[in-house]
Write a structure and sequence with these properties.
Layout lengths: L1 H30 L1 H10 L1 H11 L5 H9 L4 H4 L4 H24 L8 E5 L5 H8 L4 E6 L2 H19 E5 L16 E5 L8 H11 L8 E7 L4 H5 L14 H11 L17 H10 L3 E4 L6 H9 L1 H18 L4 H23 L5 H12 L2 E7 L12
Parallel strand pairs: 1-2, 1-4, 2-3, 4-5
Antiparallel strand pairs: 5-7, 6-7
């Protein structure tokens, strides 16, 4: 028995040592773009094998297909390339964790009919299948992404309970009846649709009003989170998230060649939680935040040290902006937006007494990195909005 335990402990030590070395390698790819370019061009097989060990649900062939696209000159020189690559794989772990969290909050997928708006490579649908969904429908405007979803989900799952459709829900009707889905998902999609107001209209149109367990879940980057102000989630430029969709697109198109990127600016508009809440209400939907990750002690720390945060991150944002070497008119717009943001940040943290309600307001406005909220017909189940 002792010999067996020693063998197990030695194997665990070896595994943890290997895992640590692999993570260090991936961190170097993330943080050193010259190293990334060297690896993807001269050690492609080794790089993809290591990614395969980290993202175990994906086949090596699938990972090679995704990573291989970034050998193209237009993407090879983009400092965001490794971030884009990992976003294709890391999202599955995120979605599996989301299913677990929803279940813990009393939002059950078992035997439910699920629609995923903007399903991309099918990671969320795959996760839903693991948590007992009866029927899966994924829609996306990209056939290439749907092809990836077919590969990830496999022929058995597609044959038994999944449909994948190349369709734009905002300009086309789905081949299903109204109010026909028990659960609707839309993760990291809201900023990519032309009208967030119309988005809630589609939720109202297709979400079942008969099943008491029906709900829609949305996640979207928080416009006023300091990290997103420092680095716009898709293109990195400081302050870009604070501008209107039109202003942001104008700046992106005029600067993207300088930043070694041919990616189109596909974000329309970012909003605050209170604005999303008003849009949902106009469609007779009630929304509430999923707050199981909310930590009151951390929120108190933000409130106590808000001036320190403001000065620290303001300097970081402006210094980072200077390093981009943007055209003066573009720089001035972003500089003004960043200054206005931090003035509002300081004012919001000082003008009112910090009651529990105020703390929650400030958390949802500034400190939540991603806004996660649930929409329902009728009265909200308050248990789902409790904090830890």
């Amino acid at each position: 028995m002792e010999l067996k335990n020693n063998m197990i402990n030695n194997l665990l030590k070896y595994y943890n040592k290997f895992k640590s070395r692999n993570e260090a390698y991936l961190n170097e790819l993330r943080n050193d773009h010259d190293f990334f370019r060297s690896e993807i061009t001269t050690n492609f097989d080794g790089m993809t094998r290591r990614l395969c060990k980290r993202y175990r649900y994906f086949s090596l062939d699938y990972i090679k297909k995704i990573v291989g696209r970034f050998k193209e000159a237009s993407l090879l020189n983009n400092p965001m390339s490794m971030r884009y690559i990992e976003s294709e794989f890391a999202i599955l772990d995120v979605q599996l964790d989301l299913m677990k969290r929803l279940k813990q909050n009393g939002l059950d997928l078992r035997n439910k009919t699920v629609l995923d708006i903007g399903c991309a490579a099918g990671c969320l649908l795959f996760a839903c299948s693991k948590y007992g969904a009866a029927k899966l429908v994924g829609i996306d405007i990209s056939q290439d992404r749907l092809n990836n979803a077919k590969e990830l989900m496999g022929s058995k799952l597609l044959k038994e309970k999944a449909d994948l459709l190349c369709i734009d829900i905002f300009s086309q009707e789905l081949p299903y009846g109204k109010n026909s889905f028990d659960v609707i998902f839309s993760t990291n999609v809201m900023e990519h649709v032309p009208s967030a107001h119309n988005y809630f209209g589609k939720i109202k149109e297709y979400l079942s009003d008969k099943n008491r367990g029906s709900f829609a879940f949305t996640s979207v980057g928080n416009k006023y989170n300091i990290s997103n102000v420092l680095t716009e989630p898709h293109y990195g430029i400081p302050g870009l998230i604070l501008l209107s969709g039109t202003e942001a697109a104008d700046i992106w198109y005029s600067e993207r060649k300088k930043l070694s990127s041919d990616l189109d600016y596909e974000v329309f508009e970012w909003y605050l939680y209170e604005e999303y809440k008003e849009m949902a209400f106009s469609h007779d939907l009630e929304i509430f935040p999923l707050l199981d990750k909310y930590e009151a002690d951390l929120m108190d720390a933000y409130l106590i040290h808000h001036m320190d945060f403001a000065h620290k991150y303001y300097d970081m944002a402006i210094n980072k902006l200077r390093n981009y070497g943007l055209e003066k008119s573009n720089y001035d717009k972003l500089d003004a937006a960043i200054r206005k943001y931090f003035d509002e940040y300081i004012k919001d943290h000082t003008v009112e007494k910090t009651t529990p309600e105020r703390k929650l307001y400030l958390y949802l406005k500034y400190h939540a990195f991603v806004l996660e909220f649930v929409a329902m017909h009728g009265p909200v189940n308050s248990q789902c909005a409790t904090t830890n």
